[in-house]
Design goal:
This protein is α/β, with parallel strands linked by helices. Strand 6 and strand 7 form a beta hairpin. Helix 5 packs antiparallel against helix 21, helix 7 packs antiparallel against helix 8 and helix 8 packs antiparallel against helix 9. It has an eight-stranded mixed β-barrel with strand order 10-11-13-14-15-16-17-18, surrounded by five helices. It has a five-stranded mixed sheet with strand order 6-7-5-8-9, sandwiched between helices. The radius of gyration is 47 Å and the shape is elongated. It starts with a helix and ends with a strand.
């Protein structure tokens, strides 16, 4: 404003000075023509001297004959906005002078200035001033932004780290800034972050230690007898077929007796590492005693069980120091296929008998007991892998897949989701997933079944807006198939409206044995804003610290962890696991809830989800 005011005053003063000079110069030029009474020449001088840029009106009054020469110039200009002219006023100046020759007065000259040029110059000066200020302000902002960016960068890093810490994600310590006030804050924040990280890791380690103490053999790392008995009880309570393999390794017993515990433990650890390759989502491998191991294999045929027994013998044979390969195998395997009438005692008794008989065959110390091998029911259900594959292909082509739904609720009885269980209905014959899933997995064709089931359920939910959230199980072979991943990604991208209503349930074994592929699939699911959970959590005795990496929406605990909660040690294990999961905002769901009292006890152990017969006694069956 000061600059504009100074420029305005200067322009007014300039107008006055120019008018004085013009009047003086014109007076001298007009005097000879006025003396000679030459009005035409006088008028020519006035026209030549004055123009519209500086003057708005010129009047020459000749005294001796009272004649008058008057010129008026328009003062309108289009360069200056009207609002500018109204805002800043530059008044016109009128000056008069008497023209003389000696002592004789010849005429009066009156000149009125024009503010047009002054307004134009003031407008140009104002625009230059505004532009200069704008450029300076812009450079000032950039400079200030650079300064603030350098100053506030530590605060931004603190903000991002605080957000990550709220999700229990800890990274490297933040760099210490040069700003003294912020350096103390960052030091304190780094210390707090490291303390929380250590606390979380200790908590996860505590849960692992408690679980190992309760359910795991400390030497081999395999399940212990208590865990196996729980799994056997659970399996025998269902109608699933399958079998068990009891391995007795005399080589290990001899090592303990002759060379001591260090040598014996070393052989156990080597054997456990090799035999663990047989572990799957459904199989359980346990160490029963010093030299006895058992494999529980639901959903398996007699031929497949025999193959597993032969693999066990081969693994044991590799432990022997026999360069000539002529010594007999210092081990034996007893195999038993389950009969529908078997209980725990009869099954284990058959395993001991099979093992005893196997020792009597040194060439191949392996015996299989299959009492129901020739019954009609067994012949109906013991189909080969290719037969099961053909049945599944037929079910996909003819849409023979049907679905049952089992609810999972929270502690307030609000439905979390409904887990989908698929089966094949062919005529009057019903085939559950447990019957054909093992064969499909072994042939690595589970993706075709998964794609069909997902397609059907996506269509069902798209057409039925009232249907609740559903959890869809994904097979292990699909998790490791990149073609399935691409197909699922396209499916999720084409139906974003279902992201809140569909969850994908992945088996825990995938996170342990195929962590890279599983991580890629989880990233695809998260990228499309869908959610996933983990099934059979804890079955494979892996460290639960992987939860912090993958961040599932929920985990469904293995039945063994929720079955014997009256045992204080096992209740402590469960509480430790659920506390770790809850701190990561992961919902823990207990399955096979059969009574309301069981649900109440689990609630006290921080279980936040429940699923089973007590929750949903009548499954809602739908056909598509």
């Amino acid at each position: 404003m000061i600059q504009l005011h100074t420029t305005r005053n200067f322009l007014i003063e300039q107008q006055s000075t120019e008018m004085d000079n013009a009047i003086s110069a014109v007076g001298m030029a007009l005097a000879p023509y006025l003396e000679a009474n030459d009005k035409v020449s006088a008028e020519s001088v006035i026209n030549a001297t004055f123009d519209s840029s500086f003057y708005s009106e010129v009047t020459l009054s000749i005294l001796h004959d009272e004649a008058e020469i008057k010129r008026t110039f328009p003062s309108k200009t289009t360069e200056v906005p009207d609002w500018f002219s109204r805002l800043i006023v530059i008044d016109t100046i009128t000056k008069s002078s008497t023209l003389t020759s000696g002592w004789m007065q010849l005429a009066n000259l009156t000149v009125t200035s024009s503010s047009t040029r002054a307004y134009s110059q003031l407008w140009q000066a104002s625009m230059q001033l505004v532009f200069g200020f704008a450029v300076t302000f812009l450079f000032g902002l950039v400079f200030l932004a650079l300064i603030l960016s350098a100053v506030l960068k530590p605060l931004k890093l603190i903000q991002l780290r605080a957000k990550a810490m709220s999700n229990n994600q800890f990274g490297e310590p933040l760099p210490i800034p040069r700003i003294r006030e912020l350096s103390d804050v960052v030091h304190a924040f780094n210390h707090m972050s490291s303390q929380l990280k250590v606390h979380f890791e200790q908590q996860a380690q505590e849960a692992d230690n408690l679980r190992i103490r309760a359910y795991q053999d400390p030497v081999s790392g395999l399940a212990n007898r208590s865990y196996l008995m729980t799994q056997l009880t659970s399996w025998l309570s269902t109608s699933q077929e399958g079998g068990i393999a009891l391995l007795k390794v005399d080589l290990i017993a001899d090592a303990y007796a002759q060379d001591g515990y260090e040598t014996g433990d070393h052989l156990v650890q080597i054997l456990a590492a090799k035999i663990n390759i047989l572990a799957t989502e459904h199989y359980t491998i346990a160490r029963l005693s010093q030299s006895e191991f058992m494999l529980l294999a639901p959903r398996i045929t007699a031929a497949e069980l025999k193959t597993i027994g032969q693999i066990m013998l081969q693994i044991t044979f590799e432990l022997q120091s026999d360069p000539l390969n002529i010594a007999p195998t210092q081990a034996a395997v007893g195999l038993v296929m389950r009969n529908i009438d078997d209980n725990m005692s009869t099954l284990l008794a058959q395993a001991d008998n099979a093992l005893t008989q196997a020792k009597q065959h040194p060439q191949e110390p392996l015996v299989l007991f299959d009492i129901a091998a020739n019954t009609t029911k067994t012949r109906q259900t013991t189909m080969g892998k290719q037969q099961w594959k053909s049945l599944v292909d037929e079910a996909i082509a003819n849409k023979l897949f049907k679905f049952t739904f089992q609810k999972a609720i929270d502690q307030n009885n609000k439905i979390l989701h409904q887990e989908v269980f698929a089966y094949i209905q062919k005529g009057n014959q019903r085939y559950s997933a447990g019957q054909f899933l093992g064969a499909i997995e072994e042939l690595n064709v589970g993706k075709y079944m998964d794609m069909h089931i997902i397609e059907e359920l996506f269509n069902m939910l798209s057409n039925d807006k009232s249907a609740g959230n559903v959890a869809i199980n994904i097979t292990q072979s699909s998790v490791n198939d990149t073609g399935f991943m691409r197909w699922l990604a396209n499916k999720m991208q084409s139906t974003p409206q279902l992201k809140e209503r569909i969850l994908f349930e992945l088996p825990e074994i995938c996170f342990i044995k195929n962590s890279d592929n599983t991580g890629l699939l989880c990233e695809i699911i998260n990228k499309n804003n869908f959610s996933f959970g983990i099934d059979n959590f804890g079955h494979n005795f892996s460290s639960i610290s992987y939860l912090n990496k993958f961040r599932p929406a929920y985990v469904k605990l293995d039945f063994a962890y929720t079955n014997q909660i009256d045992n204080q040690v096992k209740a402590d294990v469960l509480a430790s696991i659920t506390r770790t999961a809850n701190n990561l905002s992961i919902t823990t769901i207990a399955t096979r809830i059969e009574t309301s009292s069981q649900q109440e006890k689990l609630s006290k152990l921080m279980i936040r989800g429940f699923q089973g017969y007590a929750v949903d006694k009548m499954n809602n069956e739908k056909s598509i």
